Amino acid sequence: MATFLYKLGRLSFRRRHFVALIWVALLTLAGVGAASAPAAGNSSFSIPGTEAQKAFDLLEQRFPGTSADGATARVVFKAPSGEKMTDPGNKATVKETVKELSDGSEVVRVTDPYQAKAVSRDGTIAYAQVSYKVSGMELDDAAKDALKDSAQDAREAGLTVEIGGDALQAVPHTGSSEIIGIAVAAVVLVITFGSLVAAGLPLLTALVGVGIGVSAITGLASALDLGSTTSTLAMMIGLAVGIDYALFIVSRYRAELAEGREREEAAGRAVGTAGSAVVFAGLTVVIALVGLSVVNIPMLTKMGIAAAGTVAIAVLIALTMVPALLGYAGRKVRPMGEKGKLLGRAKKQDRPAKPNLGTRWASFVVRRPVAVLLLGVIGLGAAAVPATSLELGLPDDGSQPVSTTQRRAYDLLSEGFGPGFNGPLMVVVDAKNSDDPKAVFAETGDEIKGLKDVVTVTPAQANKAGDTATITVIPGSKPSSVTTENLVHGIRDAGTGIKADTGANVLVTGSTAMNIDVSEKLNDALVPYLVLVVGLAFLLLIVVFRSILVPLKAALGFLLSVMAALGAVVAVFQWGWLSGLIGVEQTGPVMSMMPIFMVGVVFGLAMDYEVFLVTRMREAYVHGEKPAQAVVTGFRHGARVVTAAAVIMMAVFAGFIGSSESMVKMIGFGLAIAVFFDAFVVRMAIVPAVLALLGRKAWWLPKWLDRALPNVDVEGEGLRTASGDDDRELVRV
Predict the structure, then answer these.
(1) Please, is 45 exposed, middle or buried when counting C-beta atoms within 10 Å of its C-beta (0-12, 13-18, 19+)?
(2) SS (H, E, C) 385-412
(3) How far, in Å, CA of 586 to CA of 72, rounded?
(4) Other beta carbons less than 10 A from residue 265's beta carbon
(5) How far apart (Å, rounded) are the C-alpha atoms in residues 575 and 589?
(6) C-beta neighbour count of 73 within 10 angstroms
């Protein structure tokens, strides 16, 4: 592989006009496609195989035209102090509002609070429910404006009016903090390279790659039913790895220049060596992201594949566009260690150069491996303790900031009707195979009324055929509580008995039941996902490092860092520690897909540093250095670059903490803290300590396996042999 990439790097350097033209053309084509593509609506949220999804599908068949998955809005009214909603003036205002809401072309129906008995017992709070034909993201601006205007008219009449539900769902924005993250990355690159030109190359290539990836996602969003979060996460991951991969190539290029090579030769060798590490690091990220498809949640699968595509583009750009731009930069990109003016190889100093920080740190770790290892493991273990209290759920209006009308409506409904009113359960009774459907409907309602934590059970509403009915159940606890989850399972257990007696199917659905099903599905998929992703990456790393223990150590180190990161997420978003610093106004359960998504993304990113850092150690070891000295050599060449890459990635991820979308905010924080733990604790401390303790055993590989594995030549052995510039004897490992 090194030889092929070496030739590719030289070709891209020499034919830089052609290479640059291709990438500019692709960026233009993607941009035009995104601009001309139809606007995408909200991605449909379906969870195949779950009971809640089966119930939704059944409703579509048996209750046609009801738009079971359409947007809803709850317009909540509160009377002024000392008044009631049943007072004539307030009642007239509400009825006028209901009439205005019914005029919309996308409105299916609007419930009158006084006819639907949607007035609180004390008479101070009432609500009207508006059902739409389309989802919240597909609603016309005119429909949203009409909803807001109707509420404002009621406010002017003296009522307190708030709007809940997903009808006012907006496209999330990341805010200015994303720009700050890119600015921090730029500063780190300037400090690392000491040159504006060299620092600008990784930023430019990363932006081109992200531009192509996000534009392609935007252009295909309507056809492939991609949501807005898909492009946001693709941009987050693509920008981070794009900068890092280009940083690796440019750093190796400068090192090759410092050894006296011509620029075209240096570009070829940089792509042949560091480029090999980039390819395998990118493969681990792609495996982790594409592997999300095993969960069988379409939205998560699309997010993973879209982000993986952006990562693949980042790899291709690093291998071709970066050497092409190095050709344009010429002497403006200086050899490593050169400041201000060229330092010829013949220039000598009377005293040896002072070892850099990476060398000094690695030497310390090699001398004290046990102490460093214990300190790192204990520290990460302590950070992971909060993860034992992890509670999972999906965000609802109760997790919105208190400044939003959705959250205020949620609180008013809790005040007037109880906390469970914000998470009603819809029970669908399919009595098509029953002899007496009406009796089954009544029996089901009676069974549910006898369960714990049930406040209200509405009479069954049958369809025209009379074979299917819906029953609404109001729990006594809030939607995200364990008590409500137990109630859902209790209804389903009762439904099993009803089916045995009557042949009727009893299904529980609604947003609360769907959230519970999603959490359980994700929990069930976590272990198979870990086995698949870690297993495939383990095999890949065996090929890269030609070792058993090094990949095993990499996988175990990843588990430590991801558990510590999950602990930090729980501490901030669930417990509320330091939550005010990142704008978390409401604590609550961690998003259900957070653990499995973090496992996928962090594993791929963690392997970036593992591959780049340890390949330099292996490169030194196979060319004759002792194991401990190879660790120091790897740090001397790679620690500065890996540190810069980690800081850049942390800055990019942290930039998304300013997002208005709680899911993006949580993922941004989780990935940023995970990169910190993995890069600075696992890769910079635990990895060299373990390798120092293992010695030559770290690079052991059974002879039969050594013969069976393909030789991918990540360390560039073939390049050294072909050029004859290294006469050291290679160590057989």
Answers:
(1) middle
(2) HHHHHCCEECCCHHHCCCCCHHHHHHHH
(3) 23
(4) 18
(5) 9
(6) 29
Closest residue by Cα to residue 381 from 682, 688, 692: 682
Q: Exposed (0-12), middle (13-18) or buried (19+): which is 344, by Cβ within 10 Å?
A: exposed
Tokens of 182: 């890119």
Within 159-259, strands assigned E span 160-165
For 379, other C-beta atoms within 10 Å of its C-beta total 16
Place of tokens 């159940």: 473
- Tokens at 414, concatenated: 């809790």
DSSP string for residues in 395-461: --GGGS-TTSHHHHHHHHHHHHH-GGGGS-EEEEEE-TT-S-HHHHHHHHHHHHHTSTTEEEEPPPE
Query: Residues 6 or more apart from 112 whose CB is under 8 A from it?
Result: 95, 98, 128
Confidence of residue 95 (pLDDT cuts 50, 70, 90): very high
One DSSP character per residue, 671-716 reads HHHHHHIIIIIIIIIIHHHHHHHHGGGGG---HHHHHHS----TT-
Task: Return d(Cα 185, Cα 244) in angstroms, integer.
Answer: 10
Cβ–Cβ under 8 Å, residues 582 and 177: no
Percent of residues in the chain assigned helix, strand, coil, to nearest 5: 65, 10, 25
pLDDT tens track for 301-315: 888 888 899 999 999
Q: Please give the angle made by the CA atoms of 605, 541 and 731, to the nearest 5 degrees.
A: 125
Kindly tell me the sign of the dihedral angle through the C-alpha atoms of 670, 673, 675, 677: negative
Q: Kindly report the CA angle at 548 between 546 and 552, in degrees rounded to 5?
A: 125
Torsion of CA 355, 195, 24, 275, to 10 degrees: -10
DSSP code for 657? G
Q: Does residue 107 contact residue 132 with C-beta atoms inside 8 Å?
A: yes
The token duo for 257 is 């220049």
Which residues, 6+ apart, have CB-to-CB distance to 437 below 8 Å?
431, 462, 466, 467, 469, 504
**What pLDDT is attached to residue 103?**
83
CA 34: distance to chain centroid?
23
| 160-165 β-sheet, strand order | 107-110, 125-132, 72-78, 160-165
| Among 150, 171, 61, residue whose Cα is nearest residue 430 | 61
pLDDT digits (tens, 9 = 90+) for 16-25: 999 999 999 9
Return the DSSP state at 296: -
Question: Would you place residue 727 in the very low, low, confident or very high pLDDT band (cuts 50, 70, 90)?
Answer: very low
DSSP per-residue letters across 538-591? HHHHHHHH--SHHHHHHHHHHHHHHHHHHHHHIIIIIS-TTGGGGT-----PEE
What kind and span of H or E run contains 117?
none
Task: Give yes or no for a contact between 302 and 224, defined as CB atoms under 8 angstroms apart.
Answer: yes
Q: Is 492 in contact with 409 (CB distance < 8 Å)?
A: no
487 contact partners, CB below 8 Å, separation of at least 6: 425, 451, 452, 453, 454, 473, 475, 477
Q: How far is CA 303 from CA 209, 234, 299, in A?
A: 17, 7, 6
Cβ neighbours, 10 Å, residue 7: 13
Q: Write out the DSSP string of 617-635.
A: HHHHHHTT--HHHHHHHHH
* Per-residue tokens: 437: 């459907």
**pLDDT of 733:** 42
Question: Residues 201-233: pLDDT tens digits?
Answer: 888 998 999 999 888 888 877 677 676 667 777
Q: How far is CA 242 from the centre of its chain?
A: 16
| Residues ≥6 apart with Cβ < 8 Å to 346 | none
On the 0-12 / 13-18 / 19+ scale of CB atoms within 10 A, 479 is: buried
Neighbours of 35 (CB within 10 A): 10
